[in-house]
Amino acid sequence: MVKRFRIGINFFFDNQSNSGVVNYIFNIISALKTVDELKKPQIVVFYSLNAPVEFLKQIEYPYIRYILFKPHPNSYLIRRANSLIRIVFKKDIYKYYKYFNKIDCLYPYFEFMDLDFVSANNKIHWLVDFNNKVFPEHYEDGSKNMDSFQLKLTSSKERIVLSSNTLLNELETYYPNYKCKVHILRFASSLPQLKEEDVNEVKKKYQLDNPYFMSPNQFWEHKNQMVVLDALCVIKNKYPYLNFKIIFTGSLQVNRGKGFYVDKLRQKVIDNGLDDNIIFLGVIDRKEQLLLMQGAIALIQPSLYEGWSTLVEESKALNKFILLSNIPVHQEQISLNVDFFDPYNPNELADKIHQRLTSPSKNSLVDYNENIKKFGEDILNTLTL
């Protein structure tokens, strides 16, 4: 019998709280499914009741266990015994035998979310980005808590994963004396097969008769949807004959930053009479979202900052054209089927939207499956060191 390396994954998010992490975990498991049979690891998913476990189960990964995480044993006697052992030996025996000893490593580990796993062995952190350093004003506390966490982490000898060389450059800038061990792990997005007839059906469902662009993102300040609305204002004055829509998806229950960004966007739509051109769909079925993306004229990613953009990977997987902010990580991430623009310049974005509507270039077709396979191999090479 093959002894498989055991990767633990904490699945404590849902699509309302953080769809990005949900999709990231989905992509990890999907990529690992592509590696050679003998190299496939055992995956142990510790999940919470609100986590969309069925979303992961549809991958049908062959060597996977799902364990509902309970921080305390149900039995009063076991709880008491465990408490005494924890006091005397400084070790949570219950968690050790029920969770920690079932895995060889835990990834991705978020210390601020996964406090119950702080004593687990071989934890590997995913440091998503340094948004707190770039835009501290987007945080209610001026990013003090996140700064403190990152300083502690980077000053330790913990293992951390970054998703781009751009982030490594930022790490060296913000924490030049870092002691943590750094791995670069660029992820790829695994998407279901989409049928053209299903694209047409979902367009009918949402009454999309006109051409449309799509910008699926969380409504956080740095995602910069405001420049899209500003560009639309320019278009209405400069090209009033154009008839199209822009669709936003993403949770309308903002849980990051100052929390008023959605309100500002909606007010901008009202103040400038953009109701006929803008649609806020909120969180919709994942497959429907992808079908709408497939049917769009192009995708728009106006972000001011990213660690490694999921939307860019999805555009590559779909072979869709994307209008993309010209920040360094985006230029590291993609070179085909893209038109870059200054995310602070709505006039430039307006002209590029006009160009896609009136004289679009032909897309280059790429076999994205190779990206997914490479991601699977890179996961193994990173986690099994």
Summarize the structure.
By secondary structure, the chain is of the alpha/beta class.
Distance between the termini: 22 Å
> From the coordinates shown, what is the CATH architecture of the largest domain?
3-Layer(aba) Sandwich
Beta-sheet strand percentage?
15-25%
Helix content: 40-55%
The tally of strands reads 13
CATH class category name of the largest domain:
Alpha Beta
What do the pLDDT scores average to? 92
Q: What is the number of independent domains? A: 2
Structural class: alpha/beta
Explained architecture:
It is built from 15 helices and 13 strands. The radius of gyration is 22 Å and the shape is globular. The mean pLDDT is 92. Helix 7 links the parallel strand 6 (159-162) and strand 7 (181-184). The chain is α/β, with parallel strands linked by helices and 385 residues long. The strands form 3 sheets. Strands 3-2-1-4-5-6-7 form a 7-stranded parallel beta sheet. It has a 3-stranded parallel beta sheet with strand order 8-9-10, covered by helices on one side. The protein has a 3-stranded parallel beta sheet with strand order 11-12-13, with helices on both faces. 41% of the residues lie in helices and 16% in strands.
